[in-house]
């Protein structure tokens, strides 16, 4: 078989293949199994986590929150095979290994790593490479793994045989193929191409969406003003590379290092940044739970999902599912508040939990219970503030807006690094549980077409903003750049156009203010998913032949509501679905380029993570697709 994509997703599938092969292949492994890993980037790390990137770029997860292995919390068909988390691996190297084997820079970093450190992506690359080596070494007898450092450029079939064509090397003839390529580049949209042409015509600079680490940022000149559209993780990378990456540095203003001062290098541009929310993603929590992990799922788990599926009627996410999701997320919040900070509540947890369980989320009785039990409004979960952090902020001009936005960002940062506010982590943990339950509901096709087209996008955006934010130190750096005048915030409801020979931008927050003008515009985000516009040659060939198709959401009256741009797969196991709707028995796909959303290629330990469960389901389906497995099943 072949796995196209040898990053953490492909490595995770390989680990699960090794775990289940003795059970599912005849005679343990029968006559043997050859697995071909294909990737032009380093196996294990892949493109996103490869060593060959700026040493300044960091993970947005703490060392203790990263693992590639199943543990006793994971509910799956395949065997549980625990392995070291990033932090376990680092501790072992610190205590019994030679960190300098990673090179002097990474050796020094590893010696300084703690459980709460946000490691560099280069150090994560070393962990992922080590994991893959361990997975390969631990394959059962008869399973042979071959790594091909090249690109897969085509896929054809001759009867049951799949032929994978390589950019460098002879074709591979295999029985089954898994497409695990991760985020795929796409050519610009028609609107983006028009902006490219218009910018060139006017002598302006436009950088369309792209993986920030692969963008040539030298075209942004020192002193040039650039409007930046997007404030997610791609924006954080942009800021790192344009400021610290050009020789600037940050110095602590106080002994605690809570406030930073930016010392410029002289090569800095001037960024004016906005987005629909107008604020960066919420910082990752920098503390541990005090009250223990909340019992999850509680209100939105298998029983509730089964009930909604069994009803047989289209379900509206915002009206019918969100109340369950919100109650679950708030359960995580209040579990941590009551058990971790009992001095700040007026009821015992058992009494509160019993009454909470009986009430609907968005009801007067629930509001009364929370108000009576939680006296400080800051201790009450506020979904509006989490989703729209600049609600209520308005300013007459850009200068007046800056301290107002900085104040909101600084307060949000404080709550995510101060252990007095660990309920944020309780909600975060619950959101991960909710993500997996909703994924199952989506996979079953239970949501209405409009909810699939619009509400799921809202949820994904909300989840990213709350659960996928940067480390706190990055937010401190952003605030320092803002105070120094190198980064200015446009506010929420950003808009951009081209007029009078320049880019212009404004926002709903600055309604009535004159627009900001600039000679450069950067779309700081990944390209929108589009299998039809993909630059991946293998997937492009499958799209041209109809062997793969995009998931298109159609309303009951036949109106196309949205083309997701994601390739269609069978939700239960990732089997590839062609343009006619036929499921291929020997082709599978997993990752962000598919219509099945899974939160990350690696995960926190002890979370019954959706990604590990899905890897297991895909791997077992792949093994069952092999001839030796089919022969075994027939014999049985």
UniProtKB/TrEMBL annotation:
InterPro entries: HpyO/CreE_NAD-binding, L-asp_N-monooxygenase_NS-form. Residues 2-183 form the FAD-dependent urate hydroxylase HpyO/Asp monooxygenase CreE-like FAD/NAD(P)-binding domain. Pfam families: NAD_binding_9 (PF13454). This is FAD/NAD(P)-binding protein. It comes from Pseudonocardia xinjiangensis. The lineage of its organism: Bacteria, Bacillati, Actinomycetota, Actinomycetes, Pseudonocardiales.
């Amino acid at each position: 078989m072949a796995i196209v994509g040898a990053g953490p997703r492909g490595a995770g599938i390989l680990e699960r293949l090794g775990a289940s092969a003795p059970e599912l292949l005849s005679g343990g492994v029968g006559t043997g199994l050859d697995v071909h890993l294909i990737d032009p980037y380093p196996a294990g790390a892949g493109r996103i986590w490869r060593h060959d990137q700026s040493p300044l770029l960091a993970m947005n997860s703490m060392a203790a929150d990263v693992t590639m292995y199943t543990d006793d919390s994971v509910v799956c068909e395949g065997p549980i095979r625990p392995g070291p988390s990033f932090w376990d691996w680092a501790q072992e190297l610190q205590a019994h290994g030679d960190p300098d084997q990673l090179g002097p820079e990474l050796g020094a970093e590893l010696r300084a790593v703690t459980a709460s450190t946000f490691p560099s992506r280069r150090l994560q690359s070393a962990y992922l490479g080590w994991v893959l080596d361990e997975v390969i070494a631990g394959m059962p007898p008869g399973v042979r793994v071959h790594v091909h450092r090249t690109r897969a450029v085509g896929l054809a079939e001759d009867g049951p045989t799949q032929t994978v064509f390589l950019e460098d090397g002879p074709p591979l003839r295999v029985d089954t193929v898994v497409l695990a390529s991760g985020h795929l580049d796409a050519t610009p949209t028609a609107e983006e191409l028009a902006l490219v042409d218009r910018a060139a015509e006017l002598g302006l600079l436009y950088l369309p969406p792209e993986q920030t680490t692969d963008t040539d940022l030298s075209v942004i000149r020192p002193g040039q003003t650039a409007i930046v559209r997007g404030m997610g993780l791609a924006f954080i990378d942009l800021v790192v590379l344009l400021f610290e990456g050009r020789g600037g540095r940050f110095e602590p203003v106080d002994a605690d290092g809570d406030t930073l001062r930016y010392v410029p290098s002289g090569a800095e541009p001037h960024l004016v940044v906005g987005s629909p929310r107008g604020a960066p993603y919420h910082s990752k929590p920098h503390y541990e739970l005090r009250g223990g992990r909340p019992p999850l799922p509680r209100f939105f788990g298998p029983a509730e999902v089964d009930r909604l599926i069994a009803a047989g009627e289209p379900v509206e996410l915002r009206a019918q599912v969100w109340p369950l999701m919100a109650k679950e997320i708030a359960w995580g919040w209040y579990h941590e508040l009551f058990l971790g900070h009992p001095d700040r509540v007026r009821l015992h947890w058992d009494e509160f939990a019993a009454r909470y369980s009986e009430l609907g989320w968005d009801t007067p009785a629930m509001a009364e219970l929370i108000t009576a039990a939680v006296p400080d409004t800051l201790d009450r979960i506020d979904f509006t503030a989490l989703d729209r952090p600049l609600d209520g902020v308005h300013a007459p001009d850009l200068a007046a807006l800056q301290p107002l936005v900085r104040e909101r960002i600084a307060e949000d940062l404080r709550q995510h690094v101060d252990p007095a506010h660990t309920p944020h982590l309780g909600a975060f943990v619950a959101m991960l549980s909710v993500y997996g339950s909703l994924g199952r509901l989506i996979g079953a096709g239970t949501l209405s077409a409009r909810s699939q087209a619009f509400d799921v996008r809202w949820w994904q955006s909300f989840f990213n903003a709350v659960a996928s934010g940067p480390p706190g130190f990055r937010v401190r750096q952003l605030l320092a750049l803002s105070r120094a005048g190198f980064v200015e915030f446009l506010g929420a409801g950003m808009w951009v156009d081209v007029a009078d020979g320049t880019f212009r931008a404004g926002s709903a927050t600055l309604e009535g203010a004159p627009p900001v003008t600039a000679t450069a515009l950067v779309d700081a985000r990944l390209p929108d998913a589009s299998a039809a516009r993909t630059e991946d040659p293998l997937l492009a060939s499958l799209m041209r032949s109809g062997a793969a198709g995009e998931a298109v959401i159609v309303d009951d009256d036949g109106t196309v509501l949205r083309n997701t741009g994601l390739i269609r797969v069978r939700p239960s196991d990732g089997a590839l679905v062609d343009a006619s709707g036929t499921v291929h028995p020997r082709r599978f796909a997993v990752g962000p380029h598919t219509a099945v959303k899974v939160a990350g290629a690696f995960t926190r330990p002890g979370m019954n993570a959706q990604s590990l469960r899905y890897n297991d389901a895909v791997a077992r389906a792949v093994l069952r697709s092999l001839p030796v497995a089919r022969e075994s099943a027939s014999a049985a």
